[in-house]
Specification:
Elements lengths: L6 E7 L3 E9 L5 E10 L3 E2 L2 E2 L2 H19 L5 E6 L5 E10 L9 H11 L8 E13 L2 E4 L9 E12 H13 L3 E7 H9 L2 H6 L1 E6 L4 E7 L2 E8 L3 H12 L3 H11 L12 E5 L6 E5 H26 L9 E4 L8 H9 L3 E3 L18 H14 L9 H17 L3
Helix pairs in contact: 1-3, 4-10, 6-7, 6-8, 8-9
């Protein structure tokens, strides 16, 4: 009997665009891109749902386009989570190893993680992720996986991400009303890091800056683990709005101008470059120099980067970024962003392009798709053991997804 086709699907519901990527798990266990869909986002503001019907229609359009290009239908998706409601902190936990042999088992690891996340939270907040940074066995730190080691005391340092219960439920509800099951919600910068950062980056120390439409997501990795994450309330949409106001044109025209002529660093602009701009309502056009456009963009981009720099400084990681910064998200495509970031931070900076999937078209190898690609990679890595190699893999995934859906729906 032929093996059923298995898919891993990432759904990035952003402020500006919504992207769906469908990947097939091949016989070697690798992920191959088979379908991609994208739609202009509606009903989203700064990473959260503000109009449910608009968000549902956007998700449907994106997923249907991906399903059409893949020639299949999907039932469950890994969904990105962002927004100003996201908060994170570091925590510790410790337990005694109970086995007579003193061998650390999976039950011990689960127990120590439970103690680490036993923190007091307001009733309107929930834990999104518990991310181990390192384990400590009888005082020996720096252990990545303690399974099978001998010891009497097991400790863990971990990074805990929390979010607003209602904001997370609204994303789940929008996806559910689109006819899909949410397999898991994943913090967007974790997904972006999965597709853009190497293990060497994380070991040396790196700051991932994902500049989206409504927010800028930050994640700091050192010694192989995530140490700090935050969501800042500025993004590419603020740059677009500044252009629309400064040039007295529409938001749609301002976004087009930003992508085609935008530059974030004035020293890269030649004096004599001009382009045509349609005024509000398209009544007439006027010529604008690229330098004037840059003088609108650069202050806002400097503000975003300064906020990131201050956030990293307050967290105490300013001097620990041996691998520098990686800037991703749609705004990373803007000319001069990398150079401006290097001037601001005095660190090496590079744009982050996604990788890790087979059969990726050139269009997908762009910073704007880092989160969507990362959702597939993170979801597959974190959950694939639940169905890959299982004799009833597809039904198992459906049951697992249905249980998660029912649990989340019960909170609504």
């Amino acid at each position: 009997m032929a093996r059923k086709t298995r898919y891993v699907v990432g759904l990035d519901v952003g402020t500006t665009k919504t992207c769906t990527i469908i990947c097939e798990v091949n016989d070697e266990g690798a992920l191959e891109v088979v379908g991609v869909g994208s739609a202009e986002s509606k009903g989203m503001r700064r990473g959260v749902v503000v109009n449910l019907d608009g968000a549902v229609s956007t998700i449907k359009k994106s997923v249907e386009e991906a399903e059409s290009s893949a020639g299949t239908s999907v039932e469950s998706v890994f969904v990105g989570l962002s927004g100003g409601h996201i908060q994170s902190f570091n925590s510790q936990g410790a337990v005694a190893v109970t086995a007579e042999s003193r061998e650390i088992g999976r039950a011990d690891i689960r127990r120590v993680l439970e103690t680490a996340k036993a923190v007091s939270l307001p009733s309107d907040r929930e834990i999104v992720h518990v991310l181990p940074q390192e384990f400590v066995v009888d005082g020996q730190d720096g252990i990545g996986d303690p399974l099978g080691l001998l010891g009497t005391r097991l400790e863990v340092n971990c990074h805990i991400v929390t979010g607003s219960t209602t904001a997370a439920q609204n994303i789940v509800t929008a996806v559910n009303r689109s006819g899909l099951i949410v397999a898991d919600t994943i913090l967007q910068q974790l997904a972006s890091a999965e597709s853009t950062l190497s293990e060497d980056d994380k070991e040396l120390g790196v700051g991932l800056v994902d500049v989206g439409g409504g927010t800028t997501n930050l994640a700091v990795y050192t010694y192989g683990g995530i140490r700090h994450s935050s969501v800042l309330p500025l993004g590419g949409d603020q740059i677009t709005n500044d252009i629309a106001v400064g040039l007295r044109t529409s938001i749609l025209e301002a976004e087009k101008i930003k992508r085609e002529h935008g530059c974030a660093l004035s020293t890269l602009v030649e004096e004599d470059i001009e382009f045509e701009v349609s005024t509000v309502a398209g009544r007439q056009t006027k010529s604008i120099s690229k330098r004037i456009l840059c003088e609108i963009i650069q202050p806002r981009m400097e503000e975003i980067l300064t906020l990131v720099q201050e956030d990293i400084r307050q967290a105490g990681f300013e001097r620990l970024l041996g691998a520098g910064l990686v800037i991703t998200g749609g705004t990373a495509l803007l000319e001069g962003v990398v150079e401006l970031a290097e001037q601001t931070f005095d660190l090496p900076v590079r744009p982050g392009s996604p990788r890790g999937l087979a059969k990726m078209e050139d269009a997908l190898i762009a910073p704007a798709y880092s989160t969507a690609v990362g959702l597939v990679l993170y979801g597959y890595r974190a959950h694939a053991h639940r169905w890959i190699g299982h004799p009833d893999g597809d039904n198992f995934l459906k049951r697992w997804g249905s249980r998660l859906f029912s649990r989340k729906r019960g909170k609504l």
